[in-house]
Amino acid sequence: MIKGEGRRVRIIDSHTGGEPTRVVVTGGPDLGSGSLSDRLERFRHEHDDFRSAVVNEPRGSDVMVGALLCEPTDPKCAAGVIFFNNVGYLGMCGHGTIGIVATLAHIGRIGLGMHHIETPVGTVQAQLHENGEVTVNNVASYRSVANLALNVPGHGTVHGDVAWGGNWFFLVHEHHAELTLGNVEGLTAFTWAIRQALGDSGITGDDGKEIDHVELFGPSQVPGVDSKNFVLCPGKAYDRSPCGTGTSAKLACLYADGKIREGQIWRQESIVGSVFEGSVTVRNGKVYPSIKGSAFVNAEADLVLDPRDPLCMGIRA
Ligand code: PYC
Q: At CA 225, angle to CA 298 and CA 216, rounded to 5?
């Protein structure tokens, strides 16, 4: 290729507990003005090929989560962000917000302390600590259905909670699956069957939206850690981190069951062994989870979108 040809997209990659975040710093589509949820719809309907170009193969992979930096509507926010993945868009993303904060600090756009970040589902706060850890104060989270009995073809009846943590989750505590990396194929097949059964049974979040994340829980073998999880994301990849929005949904369920108090620390391990620390505060009867974790920047690059490349905009199913 002749140097200089093709559109350039400046990206910074990081991982949060093993789960990657690819932040688009410049070169993204012009989504105009309006709320972040309006701009997300414009992204979805007019620029979905850009999503696929950034996160899908051959530049990305199924596990990659993208984050488009946007001008916030509220000037008190350090940034606005729209998260996306291999199949679509996310309302909020906990590991991704930790990745955004590490990235903004890496390029000198923010320093230590508290920052506001605007997302399509509301503004979240994120605190960058001196040791590089980040605490995300998430949107209000809640359980909409407790202990739902779901018939999962090939697996029998599975009981779980439906809860919101910035995305919709089905949380399963009782199952026979072994939560180990060696069993990822089995865990993916089981959780995908649950996801399909939810869809086939017409079970949604209480806003009518699809429940597109499924979480399995089990005991952790690590001293001081309360639980281990496996989280299936919308595009059938599993979350390498303990999942910020998934841990938020879990904390909302624990609080509703009286299993944690306000301020009590809950340590959630992921399937790869990374850990988030979570707790809740309650304001005006609503439960607000906080999630603490670390992200590490591991690449800075320009993506080149060469119009002569037949797979320039990524491989899409
Ligand atoms: O950390 O909230 C999260 C998340 C959602 C999907 C992947 N990670």
A: 80
**How far apart, in Å, are the Cα atoms of 131 and each of 26, 48, 137, 239?**
28, 37, 18, 24
Instruction: Give residue for tokens 């309302």.
Output: 91
Residue 1 has pLDDT above 70, yes or no: no
Instruction: Tell me: pLDDT of 317 over 80.
Output: no
Query: Is 233 an annotated catalytic residue?
Result: no
94: left (phi over 0), alpha (psi -120 to 50) or beta: alpha
Q: Residue 237 to residues 108, 126, 154, 184, 282: CA-CA distances in angstroms?
A: 32, 26, 21, 10, 32
**Would you call the peptide bond into 153 cis, given omega within 30 degrees of 0 as the criterion?**
no
Catalytic residue from among 70, 77, 233, 243: 243
Q: What six digits make up the tokens of 124?
A: 């979240």
Asked whether the whole model's pTM tops 0.85, one would answer yes
pLDDT band at 6 (very low <50, low <70, confident <90, very high): confident
CB 313 within 8 A of CB 49: yes
List 70, 77, 93, 233, catalytic entry = 93
* Torsion sign, CA atoms 274, 162, 126, 122: positive
- Which amino acid belongs to residue 35? S
Nearest C-alpha to atom 8 of ligand 1 is from which residue?
A: 243
On whether the CB atoms of residues 280 and 289 are closer than 8 A, the answer is: yes
How far, in Å, CA of 86 to CA of 88, rounded? 6
